[in-house]
Amino acid sequence: MAISDWPEGERPREKLLDKGPASLTDAELLAIFLRTGVTGKSAVDLARELRARYDSLSRLFAAELDDFCAVSGIGPAKYAQLQAVWELARRALAERMHEREVLGSPQAVRDYLRMTLGALPYEVFTVVLLDAQNRLLGVEELFRGTLTQTSVYPREVVKLALRHNAAGIILAHNHPSGVAEPSQADRMLTKQLQDALALVDVRVLDHFVVTAGRVCSFAESGYM
């Protein structure tokens, strides 16, 4: 049955306008984005298939073009639109971090890192650079590794902090395994970076381990 034949209160667009976006399921929100289905499938059916295929929204947005377009009824135009929506959301979160002292909006930092790193199939090490008032100077990906490890060189982190004249930094990396608990190697690396950056009077304020579903803070977990 086409969505236009559904009772008005059950149609995703009308439901959103009446009750707000939070009242919709993931599939209903995706259906509004998709707009139309294909023969034998409504937009909601197609959205449910996409949602099930990728298991999470973050993995859906991180999908490669060829894999995304393997779903019948989905093409490059939809992929481009979806990536544009995701990038706008990332930029909106970056603006929130720029607008205020970063430690005063910790959820924006977590959301930004989870959107940026959470669904990646390889490990990435990122540095959030802050001034003396903990305002955002920039976010830079510094190292990219394999599924299981990445090589992080303390001297490169120190050079990056000095280049931006940063007074403090927040470290972040993802665990493609989906396990957010820091490893022993993660804790050792954090201590090495703290010691190296202390020599140039740069504070390490936190280290986040990011997965698609969770962000673990070293500071909150007592690891630093």
Please describe what this structure looks like.
This protein has 224 residues and is an alpha+beta fold. Helix content is 46%, strand content 15%. The chain contains 10 helices and 5 strands; from the N terminus they run αααααααββαβαββα. The protein has a 5-stranded mixed β-sheet, with helices on both faces. It is elongated and about 70 Å long. It starts with 11 loop residues before the first helix and ends with a helix. The model has no long low-confidence stretch (mean pLDDT 85).
Task: List strands and helices in order, with pairings.
Layout (H helix, E strand, L loop, with lengths): L11 H8 L6 H9 L8 H12 L2 H5 L3 H4 L7 H24 L6 H12 L6 E7 L5 E9 L9 H10 L4 E7 L9 H15 L4 E8 L4 E3 H4 L3
Parallel strand pairs: 3-4
Antiparallel strand pairs: 1-2, 1-3, 4-5
Helix pairs in contact: 2-3, 6-7, 8-9
Secondary structure class reads alpha+beta
Distance between the termini: 56 Å
Q: What share of residues is helical?
A: 40-55%
Proportion of strand residues: 15-25%
Mean pLDDT: 85
Q: How many helices does DSSP assign?
A: 10
The description of the largest β-sheet is: 5 strands, mixed
* Uncertain residue ranges: none
**What overall geometry do the principal axes of the alpha carbons give?**
elongated
Name the strands of the widest sheet in spatial order.
Answer: 2-1-3-4-5
| Rg computed from alpha carbons, rounded to a whole number of angstroms | 20 Å
How many beta-strand elements?
Answer: 5
- Topology order in helix (H) and strand (E) letters: HHHHHHHEEHEHEEH
